[in-house]
Amino acid sequence: MRRPRTPVLLAVASATALALAGCGEAGGGGGSSAEGESAGCAEPAGGGRLSIATGNTTGVYYILGGGIAAVLTDQVEGTEATAEATNASAENIRLVCAGDSDIGFSLADTAADAVNGEAGFAGEPQSVQALARIYSNYTQVFVRADAGIESIADMAGKTVSTGSPNSGTEVIATRLLEVNDLGTGDVDQQRLGLPESVQGMKDGSIDALVWSGGLPTGGITDLVTSMGEDVVALPLDEELPKMQEAYGEAYTEGSIPADTYGLPEDVATIAVPNLLVVSDAMPEDVAQDVTRAIFENLDDLAAVHPEAENISAETATDTGDVPLHPGAEAYFEEQG
User: Fold this and answer.
1) pLDDT digits (tens, 9 = 90+) for 167-226
2) Could you give the C-alpha distances from 209 to 200, 203, 248, in angstroms and in order?
3) What is the pTM of this model?
């Protein structure tokens, strides 16, 4: 049974046991074969309803997902689309592959792990496909100024929010610790969503938070505005080569411009592309119509969040290890 839908921009808790158990329990989709290969995802329910799995309510996934839902409802005849609040990347992939959501936002590194059956998806490859590469996420690490943290290595023994369980943020946070010879047991790990992480920073119960999101992210704006000089953005330029050596070229050089949050200076960071993922069982005409509606209404999406200005057909098909859905491929080939 599909999860209950929610109106666009209305948050719903979505950490369901089905999603976290893996797609193999969802009526024929996403399970692993005897050889460890994906058996394919569940077919979407159809009927003109599309659900979009996004992320935390103060993050860009959620805001932009609401905009995409509005565009699809308006532009794709007979379609009613809704955006759902979730724990983001890893959960979204499981929801999509199970047939509980139709479209999901995901970081490209997490999606690659999913299709390859690696890391958090070891033994459970997920047959999701991509509609497109969209904008990039930026790893945003903020620490309390009084916490004595000047590098990731300094987080040992500190209270650190690594993001929501099964999120792309958690994947990146864990890897940042690992490349500095730290495990989650070496910090007081708090697996919190962004709103709770920000509140913890404000009240002093958390020393540092890791967040992967677009620019600006509303929750981070709130953090910096509220705490001012009592919070510091941690540069990650020394972490990038370690991440690339350990986990590959999905991690690229990025920068958080000072004026994004009113910081004293630009902050070097790590960028990761985002993908929109769907079930490999989504009908080709539906995938083509959805892709067309998104890419032919980017101005409307940019009015919802400026990161939509960074979505381009020129890079849309660069989805790495995640195969492009044939319907999306047909749309981009049609555009030349």
Assistant:
1) 999 999 999 999 999 999 999 999 999 999 999 999 999 999 999 999 999 999 999 999
2) 9, 13, 24
3) 0.88
Inter-residue contact 298 to 71 (CB < 8 Å):
no
Contact between residue 312 and residue 74 where contact means Cβ atoms under 8 Å apart: no
Query: Residue 146: how many CB atoms within 10 A of its CB?
Result: 11
Classify strands 267-279 and 128-144 as parallel, antiparallel or unpaired.
antiparallel
pLDDT digits (tens, 9 = 90+) for 2-50: 333 333 333 333 333 333 333 433 333 444 444 455 579 998 888 899 9
